[in-house]
Amino acid sequence: MNHSAVTLENCEQFTFPSVLAEYSYEICVSIPKQTPPAEGFPVHYVLDGSFYFQHARDVVRLQSRNTLKTQIEPAIVIGIGHAEETMHARRFYDFTAPAESYFYPERLHGRTLGPHGGAVRFIEFIEQELKPYIESKYPINTRKQSLFGHSLSGYFALWVLFTKPELFQVYLASSPSIWWNNHELTQYAQAYLDTTPDQKRVLLTVGEHERFMVDDAAALSLALNNHHYPTELYIAPDENHASVVPTILSRAFRFAQ
User: Fold this and answer.
1) What is the per-residue pLDDT across 201-222, written as a single tens digit (0 to 9) for each?
2) pTM (two decimals)
3) DSSP letter string over the chain?
């Protein structure tokens, strides 16, 4: 790991070379100014950190000043990002599960997406490299950890729920790409539910104007709830795929408490 971390306003930024994923991730860590509680701070892992870390950090930092009103506690926020020059292709690799074949909807118009199926290696990086490092360096409450993702990383957050649910207590999926590879995520969900797992807390959010993604999120929420797996669905009024994240982060981190 590059230990020459940059510290700015209670935030640290550093590059984390992963042996397991064979890629160097851009990591940002926001640390509350308060003295940590005896059990440690809650922690929110934010995927696509290059896009959403600053939003998440500011929501937690501002609203935790008045937890009684906002219901958002001081928490450590971890952004997991990609280098800008490789971000597009690497997202499709890291956030998608391995499969024997892939189905591409017509709306992609034959765009080259790069290699897929690296989700196993990416979650190994998070589980075996990043989380142990974070937990060794910062005062973490290991019983209060959430994973946030939007769009394709929202798909990944749900895939982690359905394949390695023990890694986090709360899963926050914003506009998840449930459509990916002909809705394969629903098969993961069914296999997971059939095992009668310990229940985790799940929040699905989506913008009102996201068309088929609203239907997909509603169908998944219904399937989970029909299996007596309490899942909250929030459809953000007047929001679209690009605008929805800033409008739902307060709700997401309040839900994660």
Assistant:
1) 999 999 999 999 999 999 999 9
2) 0.94
3) -----EEETTEEEEEEEETTTTEEEEEEEE--SSPPPTT-EEEEEEESHHHHHHHHHHHHHHHGGGHHHH-----EEEEEE--GGGHHHHHHHHTS---S-----GGGTT--------HHHHHHIIIIIIHHHHHHHS-EEEEEEEEEEETHHHHHHHHHHHH-GGG-SEEEEES--TTHHHHTHHHHHHHHHTT-PPP-EEEEEEETT-THHHHHHHHHHHHHHHTT--EEEEEETT--TTTHHHHHHHHHHHHT-
